[in-house]
Amino acid sequence: MDALRVCLYVFAGVSLATWLLSVVTREYSWVDRIWSLVPIAYVGIYAGAAGFADPRLDTMSVLVALWGLRLTFNFARKGGYAPGGEDYRWVVLRGRMAPWQFQVFNLLFITLVQNAILLLICLPADTALRHRSPFGVWDVVLTVVFLAFLTGETIADQQQWSFQQWKRGELTAGREPVRFVQTGLFRYSRHPNFFFEQAQWWVVALFGVSAAGAVEWTVVGAVVLTLLFIGSTRFTESISRARYPEYADYQRRTSALVPWWPGGARSS
User: Which pTM was predicted?
Assistant: First the structure.
């Protein structure tokens, strides 16, 4: 059985499981809970199809595993795997929709679209399997760049985590703290963790380009992921502006995604 077919079976099984769990538990973050795990399986399936003997596919598999381990740790420490650990944005969205509308959204977007994106971002491994070629200088460069982006996201998540811990302590002590993180990497980007997350999957897409020597359709995963993050960022920031009026000033002086020097210009 070819690797793509196996991945499609995994996609179907995971989609069904996450949808059923959301209906039974009335929690809608089950895709979030498998987000960092399923790509490891997808890319691993492709590396296994090559007998774990293709340096490029093996490297891609290891890098995606490192990505997944980091994300799993960060998600777990924020309580994402605990009962009731639902993404707050789904709570907000449910308040804006009729129950039947949200259930349609749950099936089509939360379950099917997001699971499809998880498969699509891994399909450069399909290109690498179909175009097995020597592991070259560009592959080395891409490996180093991926690790740099992984390090950047790790730092951004740690800075955000440390801020939230400090903020909780200030509130417990009855003091009024700064209400959202604006220091460290967050001085140069309002969402540096989002930027580095997308950048890593663009590197995965470029591994496929390196293998084929040309841009193939499998780069569509990185494109769709970027579009997802743009929409998610806008929705998240609409919530932040409603909670914190001073967030508008932060938007004016700080780049939305791509890290840049603070100033009057704003990227979207």
Answer: 0.93
